[in-house]
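anyone else get weird line breaks when pasting these?? whatever heres mine. first is seq + tokens for prot A
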Amino acid sequence: MKGVVFAGDRRVAFQDFADPTPGPGEVVLEIKASGMCGSDLKFYRAAPGEAAKSLGFSSTRAIIAGHEPCGLVAAVGSGVSEREARVGQRVMVHHYRGCGVCPHCSTGWMQLCDEGVAEVYGLTGHGAHAPYMVVPARTLVTLPDELSFETGAAISCGTGTAWGALKRLDLTGDQTIAIFGQGPVGLSATQLASAMGARVIALDISNERLARAKEFGADVLINPTETNAVDAIREATHGLGAHATLDSSSSSEARRQAAQSVRTWGKACFVGEGGQVTLDVSPDMLRRQVTIIGSWTFSTVGQAECATFVADRKIKVDDLFTHRWKLDQADEAYKLFDRQTTGKGVFLM
């Protein structure tokens, strides 16, 4: 089969790979939708081999990209019970493989494996930008019948990551949240927070993305290049600041503003990968009792909860996608996505 590989320096390649077969405890998925995630761009832009090294991996073998898999179980290996997986089952994938038995893995947090993450699909283990993919059965999360494969792909990382961050913030419907960055994760957070009943302040330096945030439920729009973000958030919250903030941009300035724009006893959550932030500890944190939270994706349990929430409330997650591609359009797709001015893309098989 053909698979899409990040070849380094903003290049993709199509390479031949053997059709996968399931080993003990594994299943093969027929991929129906494979999402494009903002974190892909770090690996797409990196020099050859550098992306894996940044996460502590030294593998130099060609890896199929894509860590937002959704599809059908096509084959089941030995030792997999029908309760775990069955041929034809509609599933998403939790895109990490850990040891499977430590306290974190056994509670669905495989990315926090006590032995170290064995694989990150799409980076150190073959991902979903291909017709088929093999994964441990324990990484599967059932896709509700009401949801499309595209929605399942989004929940498998971007939308699921937004859900995980909102749950870490304990967001409630009577609160106001300011969400910095309206890329795929930030826009998902806007959509989910609005569905939870919260008042959403959306921030982005792109007016095009802010317009989309309005469509997805944002109540207040702020472009930090046109106004002082902290002042604007306080003005929109009776001078108090937001109850919670979420940064999905990875911008050091946005993170600083996220901490400064919460009210006393507020919570700021950093979900964007990489980068740094400098805070003046006393005024930015201590003297206002501010809590800073880091949130790294979600557990298998959280992924299932997110899917149920989306299905029960009929949230139009599919609307996140502005572009739908075939695998042979991967070069064009990532060149467009790299501009970071559009919405989310997905490959459909």
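and prot B, same format (seq, then tokens)
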Amino acid sequence: MAFGIKRADLKRWKEEVEGGHIAFLTHFWYDPRFPKAKSVTKVGCNNRKKLSEWGRTYGLKEEWIHERDAYPHFDLIGDKQVEIMKSEGRFQELQKFLY
């Protein structure tokens, strides 16, 4: 279940994904399967090859790409989320959603 996301942020993410860009969307999230996780970052791109290559640089497997609607994406949570967000310079989201 998603929380703390604005409609404009979701619209921007979808437009970036549709435009073939690597796009980030972080929001508060709860799933009982991951009780320690407070947030998730969706990293999407409609160019599956580009998304797969991006993910490979972080040790993400192509089969982990979610094919939801027209927005293929990786879901990042936990330590991997923090590692990738830091590497990508996404410090504002880290401060807002993780700390």
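btw re prot B: Strands lie at 2-3, 23-29, 39-44, 66-68, 71-76. The chain has a mean pLDDT of 90.
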